[in-house]
Protein 1
Amino acid sequence: MASRTSRHGSAPGALDGSPRRRLPMRLLLPLLVLLALMAMLMLRGYVHSEILADHRVRPEASAAKVPDKILDGGPVIDTRSGRTTSLRVPAHHLVLTFDDGPDPTWTPKVLDVLKKHHAHAVFFVTGTMTSRYPDLVKRMVAEGHEVGLHTFNHPDLSYQSTKRVDWELSQNQLAITGAAGIRTSLFRPPYSSFADAMDDKSWPVTEYIGTRGYITVVNDTDSEDWKKPGVDEIIRRATPHGGKGAIVLMHDSGGDRHQTVRALDTFLPTLQRQGYEFDNLTEALDAPSAHTPVTGLDLWQGKAWIFLVQASDNVTGVLVVALAVIGSLVIGRFVLMLVLSAAHARRVRRRGFSWGPPVTEPVSVLVPAYNEAKCIENTVRSLMASEHPIEILVVDDGSTDGTARVVEAMGLPNVRVVRQLNAGKPAALNRGLANARHDLIVMMDGDTVFEPATVGELVQPFADPRVGAVAGNAKVGNRDSLIGAWQHIEYVMGFNLDRRMYDLLRCMPTIPGAVGAFRRSALERVGGMSDDTLAEDTDITMAMHRDGWRVVYAENARAWTEAPETVQQLWSQRYRWSYGTMQAIWKHRRALVDKGPSGRFGRVGLPLVSLFMVVAPLLAPLIDVFLLYGVIFGPTQKTILAWLGVLAIQVVCAAYAFRLDRERMTHLVSLPLQQILYRQLMYVVLLQSWITALTGGRLRWQKLRRTGVVEAPGGLIPRQPTRAGSGDRRPVG
């Protein structure tokens, strides 16, 4: 966004109420939106967390605490209600079990093969996969299969607390309830194998699982399909000997399972011809179903969970697209800025460059001022040091702090004070224009100081009769604080590189209020300064383009302005800028379909301004959001490297901008912190502006508190002693 300084006064018809009292309400909705998006991303990352394969090897442990009847028993272990029993599947019955799903690619293929051969199975599903693919779990239940818990995100429960175990079970059950409307009593621990592999680490967990109402199911035969040993080998390992019944371990998720699907299509008919039946577990044991229908609040909680997970996936998908858009915009903008600003610098700095004959005619400098008693003397004295002939008109817009008296008490030649009732900055500028004696008009703010050469540099482009307005180089004077340094970087990098780019593209969106110059005839042709928007400087600049005038940038016309020194003041200023820019874009939207200069600006300038000043800043924090997401959920190293890459591009652009502006590089030390903190503030401000615009809200003029600490480098005319009645001023050393 182009640089501006504070506006003042209160516009007629503005909303009542103190900005300070309204700050919490203004913050509430944008922060809620931001927190909601973050919550959706965190939820998405949580349910997409990596699931490790079932073949992880656990260090050997003693089995002294495991009852012999468990070690020598079957794969179905029941420790409910104080029991310690185990069961085996009857002869010629096979219970196929599939772990780690459901998987959107392989689970449907497994289900299709089972349906083809009229076989049932048990699917031990994880909560993460169930939450993401609930329709597959619903299909399992509808087709007569049983589902069991396999924890939510697949930790080794032997090394977890009972609180974590409870949480894994409840979340897994919640996902199954939301997907299929049932509860299940079957459980298989991650990294389990055979009953005789139970040890002193896993047995206490199995006992505890029973107290929570679950039956633990391990296996008799392991196909080891995760090794992809080939179809024939998977069948050989899965087949029991001598017609025995068995629980067979397979996988429908966790990797490429095409061998599993092919083996299943052969395994099922082959063993069916040998007299085997393929049942789910309770069918094989001739027991009541492991599924219990869920109704009431528990069912709605499950459905709400599934809804939120699906919503998080959809929101994340949209954010990924938005991230691609912002990445393209950021890189595209940086490339354009670097290339075009370099071309602009070469053009205006080449030997012999000039706009035409030197402009020496006198200039009227308009200084609208509202309660600027602390700053106005510095401003006026800086103008008195001007190397170019000028008259100075200070338009006091109903100040209540004696601003006009301060200027009058200075008793300086060629300085006039025009008083008016408080009517806002545009009205003050129009009043000054009506009282100006000269055809070239320079506008500045009452908290800004000029260098002696500023006015002369600012008006030289008017040697070209096509030029209607000139933007100067606004710089932050109070850059010693952290927030000041951040704004200094923004002004040099974001504003002045932009102006060079927009100058070459002939669509500069804003003449900064701190330092700008106009032809009187150009101003009169477009109707003067308008109060239709809160960004009168952007509004008048766009009007100039549409009227066919050229708007150019004078890099050596430097002005030093006092930037906000608190977050609240910065918030108020940028909120007004953002909202005012949106108003100006909307006001001039018809330029998109106009012909001639207006149409050119509408089809070139408005899209660029909208993309780079509204859309890109709104989406830019996604880079940091996905940084946080990647650091938490991985891949951490690649995420950090990608973010550092983006930061490196910004550092290069910033360093180049500082070099063009002949600024010291030391302030760039705070650039990484600016990208992390400052950008988030700008994001929330812009989001609030969007909300205000979309809801039809109106924003009042706001006056920022000034300290009068800014002076131009090199010093000014010595200050005169303060006279009685000159208002409240702070001496500056």
Note: The first strand starts at residue 76 and ends at 78.
Protein 2
Amino acid sequence: MQMFAPTFGLRSPAFAGMTAERRFAAGLLLAGLFFSSFAFADARREQPPSHPDGAAIASAHTLATAAGVQMLRQGGNAFDAAIATSAALSVVEPISSGLGGGGFFLLHDAKTGKDVFVDARETAPAAAKPEEYLLENGDFNRDRAENGPWAAGIPGLPAAFVHMADKYGRLPLKTTLAPAIKLAREGFPVYARLVRGYASRRAVMERYPGTRAVFLVNGASLKEGDIFKQPDLARTLETLAAKGRDGFYRGEVAEKLLAGVAAEGGRWTAQELAGYRVREREPISFQYRGWRVVTSPPPSSGGIALAEMLQILQGWDLRKLDPAHRIHLTVEAMRRAFRDRTFYLGDPDFVKIPQRVLSSLDYAAGLRATIHPDKATPSDLLSGEETPLEDEETTHFSIIDADGNRVAATQTVNLTYGSGLIPPGTGVLLNDEMDDFALKPGTPNAFGVMGYDANAPKPGKRMLSSMTPTFMESPDRVAVLGTPGGSRIITMVLLGVLGYDDGLDAQAVAALPRYHHQWMPDEIEAESGAIAPAVATELKAMGHGLDLPGDEAAGGRGSSHVWGNLQTVLWDRKTNTLSTGSDPRNTVGRGEVLEAVKAK
């Protein structure tokens, strides 16, 4: 520092005529100002950066990630990358999502600091009354709820592409949809999960001529390594890119969709197809142990449940607990949140939801007080009446760009390959989201969750969802995460949030072992190896029922060995570095960090 001090301004005309003493005093003042400016500069450098030094994308398929990366390299932002990634997933993951389905997009606009939730959930056709899903004897017609035209809601994903391109993106749809169009036209290698899924749904898929035309080649189903081309889907995407909303919801594509549904006995109308609109909603936000959590509002059930569970759990320091008690308390929070999901949650455009109460600290404190630290609460002791007041079937991706814009998006066709129905000439595999309504009150759906009047179908109503795209923000870290997995989505995101709070990195969060409780049935489900045998014994002694794969001795009947496909990106603001976490269970490829992509 000596090289600055001896001559710093003291020989300038301003100091001429000063006595030595006054020049010395003035020099001390200037030196003080100089060093203060350095201290201020150091303080500024300690502030977290306003945006990352690059961009990151994590999705369930490397070709979808590459589509998003391509948009960023072409000058697009996170929202353009989200359209491209989503559309590419719609081509390469028909088992999980597609133009015939819907999704939720949680967006953060770095320029305004605003978070917004784009609701592209499917809607109920007017003809889909509850009585249409009953057999003559009054039993629930599960086949109609899960397969074919009556299972399908009006798709929302194409409208989301148009909405985000018009309002948030920099690039036109012709650019953002180009990678998906190329993948559909030129094809991509078939991977094992597509083959497994098709084998499990073959009897349904091959009911419909439009589906057979896409998935069968000379009468044979696709094999791993085959190149899967979808020319009809490429043409549908091209029409959407050229004409926007009218390229899907009106005109030739719409006519083919309506004809294909009608040919199989379904009843959609041109008016309800043309009338579909996305909804922008205010996300749910709350605090958890120094994190600001931003997540999904209804018609997602995930955000309220996540707020409820985390605010119950913040009464304990989970990091100091032994594994059995940590799982016990977490499960008790899950149990209570899923009970409330059953009775209160639905489409907020149709039902009044006590959101403020359910997501409040006071309500969480009251629920916490009902939890015994060493004993399970039997679910039938929690009121079954209202009180006053998705694994391979879905996909998720997470994005942060160099401007600090963020996207957490979860999209789906519901069950594996949706309804199984492709209207001829469209390439569009329709969803089977109608099963997510309470089609028969109190009857569990395909994921075992129940519902009542709040989630009963009505024309234009959106079915309740478990999709839970989520942001986490602390002074040091920002995370974007979400996963498929049916009703287990909510608890997998919960465990991911807890993992980040434990200090794990993105890949460790994506790989966390998973367990779940949803009030009814009254049992803890878990992946293979997620709960050690000694811990399972302790939980059973506390009164918990267990469903552990391959562990019938511990009470399990053998649930799925792996769950979900969590995709997450993490921005470490201390080092201004990005990282991705892609689930090792089902991901084809890995996420990508682009340090060279700068803010524009």
Note: The chain has a mean pLDDT of 88.
Protein 3
Amino acid sequence: MQDNNFPKIYSYAEMVSRSISFGHYFLLFNCALSIFIGTAYTFSALNNDSFISFIYLILTNIGHMSFLTFIVFLIVLFPLAFIGNFRYYRIISVIIMCIYHMLLLIDAKLYLYVKAHLSLGVLNIVISDLDFDTGLNYNFLFIALPIIIALVIFFAKLATKSLYRFKIKKYAFISAILITSSFITSHLIHIWADADNYDEITALRSTYPIHYPMTARSFLRSHGFIAQNKTLNDDVQKVKYPLNSLKLNQNITSFNVLHIMLENISYQDLLEPKPQLTKISAMMQNFESFYMPYTSSLDNLFASGYGLPILYRKTILQENITPIVVEAMQKLEYGKKLFLVKDKYDFEQKLSNSPSFVQINTSTNDIQSLDKLKLDLQNFDSSRKFAFYAILSDLNSVKNNNDYQNKLTNLENKILDIILQLKAIDCYDNTLIIISSISGNNKYDDNKLKFKRNLQQGVLLIKWPFANAIASSNNALASSFDLSPTIAFNALGVINKSTDFSVGNDLKNANFDEKQMLIIDGNDLIIANKSFATIYTNDGGFIVENTQGSYRAIPKLETLIRAMRDLNRFKE
């Protein structure tokens, strides 16, 4: 008997009965498809060698993905069976299950890339932030969706035929027993693991959608941040840097670069007890909310040069990967020199063990370094562009506050001398001048806080090429990570996106944005803005700090997802 005749020859009760029977078989076939999609979560989450973890994931996949499909049937398809029209019920069932499997595919793709499931907060990130350059695009749906539709229609036909086959009931019963046993066993394993603090399993409980609520702690566990005797910067084995090959705009003029980096100076040193560096500030843009992500000079030097967190430093230096800024300078045949104090604070030794991207010139003190820099400017080949860097470390050896101010004044006068030299050789206008801190003044170190705001708020002064020499200020959140893209875009003509080679942004276009945040990796993960900082410790705890102290709060998972996406962008 053809389906089109059902309404004519069957009563309402019989139509409902047939719809419910069809729904049960249709549910069984869709459970199989859900389990297949669920394997994406299984193999994405499996990051340890524990056999019992693998068994737990397999059982959870079978039990939980089937349970999700059963819930859709129970809440949506079962009530619809009472419409009393078998043909319409099958059509509606196919449409609903196609939508359900499509959402599963989108959620699985999202979990593969950012280890998070669909929610309003995550959906906001997908719509606003995650573009087609992050790998998180959904072009695969053009292929997957027709396959899903074809399979679900095929399942509907199989379920209809199953109404007439009595043998299928035996297999349906066995499948139901298998699914139920898997569901119960997986939860029993989790109960044991939770009671026994077996982290290899408890860390996996948010792997599947709507299994356990995803929290900040479980999200960090899924990224491998929370683990015994493990810190965030132990994770990266392979790095893809830059994400896309370097591209230069050949139609614009490149500019010289002069970058002077100061140790042991914080933003507060410009204000107390009397204003400092006032003569230099009068001709430059002052970034008042500039923060160094780390307390170590070498860490901040890496962040400035590469625009990357120290998470990647070990692998990058081992593989001798050139910073994109230096790669651009090499293509443009820049003369590159670094001036620093010989054997002071271990800089020369540590830099000599790093890839040699610039010619290193050493001196006995900062004044001598700046004199050498000035002399090299005077004798430099005017047909080439130059990129001169200086690391000034004399402020580390001050005896008292007066000595500190005197040395800072002397350094300022020497820097002004160099600026005059730039004007003398007609290079002032076409030079990007940056003066920045690479370590803060230890007198502002607050040992009570994880994020030492007053210590790490540093000095950043920039004179843009061909800009009017008028003092200005910018209160946008800035960091050492921003210096690499700033030099790349404003001096070298790089046309790649900043996301190709940095976690920072171009400071020429820096504006206040409430979503801006500073992401600091290391022993703890710190997400800071101008008002407060959220600290996620590698033992799973988290606190919020401001200048008054710390307090407990519920962290925003959306913010954490943004942060981990940026941190993990360059992992292969």
Note: The chain has two domains: 3-214, 256-567.
Protein 4
Amino acid sequence: MLDQVADRVTALIFAPETLAERFDEYGCVAAQAWQDAQINLDRTAIIFAENPGDQVDAVVRTLAGFQGALSADDIAIGVPDTHMIPYIQQRLEECDLPFRYGAGIPVIRSSPCRLLHATADFLERGSFAAFTNLVRHPVIDPWLATQGIASGWLAALDEHYSTHLPAHTYGQWLPEDQSPDRLRRALAAMERLLAPLRGEPHHLHQWTDPILELLLQVYGRSGLNTQDDAQRTILVGCEQIQEAVQEHLRVDHSLAPHVSGATALRLVLRTLEDQTIPPRFDQSAIELLGWLELPLDDAEAAIVTGFNEGCVPAAQAEEFFLPDTLRRHLGLLDHARRYARDAYNLAMLAASRSRVALIAGRRSPDNDVLLPSRLLFACDDDRLPSRTVAAFSSHHPDRPQLVSPTMLRPGTAQVNFAIPRPAPLPACQGPVTSMHVTEFRDYLTCPYRYYLRHRLKLQVVNTTAEELDPVAFGNLLHEVLKVFALSTAATSDHAEEIREALYKSLDTRVRQSFGDDPLPEVLLQVEQARRRLDRFADWQADWVRQGWRIERAELLVDGQRSWLLVDGSPMHLRGRIDRIDIHEATRERIVFDYKTGDAVRDPEVAHRRSRQEWVDLQLPLYRHLVKGLGMDDVRLGYILLPKDVDQVGERIVHWTPEELTHAEQVATEVIRNVRLEKFWPPAPGPFPFDDDFASICHTQQLGALAILCAE
């Protein structure tokens, strides 16, 4: 066609005259001419990053390096690997930088579609977990408020779920629950909302009105502002859902299936899988562009992420009936033409932009190894060795210091992303006069976390658990052992009698806490607990035969009879002692603490990191708790119920009077610091992965130590 109108066609090529042989008469790249072409890239333009998080950090550092000299319209970010888009969007939002991704967001990620998805899950499964997921949708709480459900019901729901782990919403409300009324009312309101979508399968056309009515109920009570991006997304999402439902109506009545309400919702969502909601044009936003669109943009600076093999050049799946040689013969896009196209694009970027950054990752979001793009090695022989070493070296230089969001604004060089400082304790609370014996361990671990947990009373409620966490599992065993200690079987030396009492107590406690239909995972954990109690019965029978009996169990000491005198003022000590055993013949006493964790814990290792460093004072302070009971000379130890049942039994610690005195001195110093409100700075760690206060203390975050030092 072009040949027929050749006298009226001019091919414009963005390249110097010296490269004319690399293009054909139509202005297209000559594939073979680009295979060995060298691309002039500055050494500082190539950045190797370990993972996606490091890649977006490199983007932010590059932006900060512009020092405000370029406007958003002068900057474009290339995203050949679409997996990087969520990482980049999140980080730019954190940095308060406007951006625009032209492809938009998938409709199925909009608020209305997420509501339909959560509703379908709940209708199909009827599980309590699906119910909690549905009611956490941001639009549900305001809707429930219109139904007269007072605020605070969600906290009650979280507490109920984390305590009882109910399997279904139709299960019984347990006697222990302190707030069932609000939960019943919220559940009843949700059932009224979803009732039109329940019932037997109906013709697909009959689900149109219930689906639209659901959206109208929750979104139609207030107007949506199309100038607000979030509200505009909701509006467009609702419109697309309406179009999808109308499309179902166009299916011939004889061909439309009979489906459940949940399936009808799934069919609507499936129709929308390939639809997107494009963003509004924003001249002040940084554009996120695909690799092929990037060279056509006129931005002065270009930052390219995911510059890896398989993305640039893009990977092409091998087809048995259409191999690369046949594709070349047919004039289809083949490996050589794709490489030539991308080599030209890269050369054009390097020649036309004042600033270019090419960021190649070493690992994918799934931690798979990535290779840098071969285009990075299209250089002369002098540069090739150093570039290869930089790309594949196992030694990576230290990453630059964390770039704070505020540092991206011109003239700002101070980190303001600070860990909140402890505030003076309110005068209305008065001075700290009482401490639980376990508080000392928390203070020795980290004074700041002690402040958050014990003085501010912050706590984490697990709202996604599908099984008992270690604390809940331990509490279950403690309750069973408490009932056993008060039973007549506690004095028996027959393992079978002890075992029968333990099993009965376990089954009763499970029904009280989790109802008659617990989650399968909970039932499995109950059997794991039963296995530990089985071995405990053997140990307990032998322990009784040695002359020991349980004198006290689950002894609660409220602090009125126990204290430490520090600088002339008493600090009252509180605690719960699991059990105190006494030997019938020698009258010797042992204060025991049950340990139900999976691992075997030696009390010496648990309490001291070295002979001079106490990290826990629980057992030594038990001596002060029992002094108020007239027990001056006691031994201390653990009763272990670990995962390895062969290790079930007692572990008695042997501390000298001097060592116990040293422990008391450490406790005295902790009390002084608490009275002086010395809760800063946070301890450097390391802390476990599930640290409750990681988000506050910036645990395991890039630059956290630098932030702390800057303060």
Note: Residues 411-416, 702-710 have pLDDT under 50 and may be disordered.
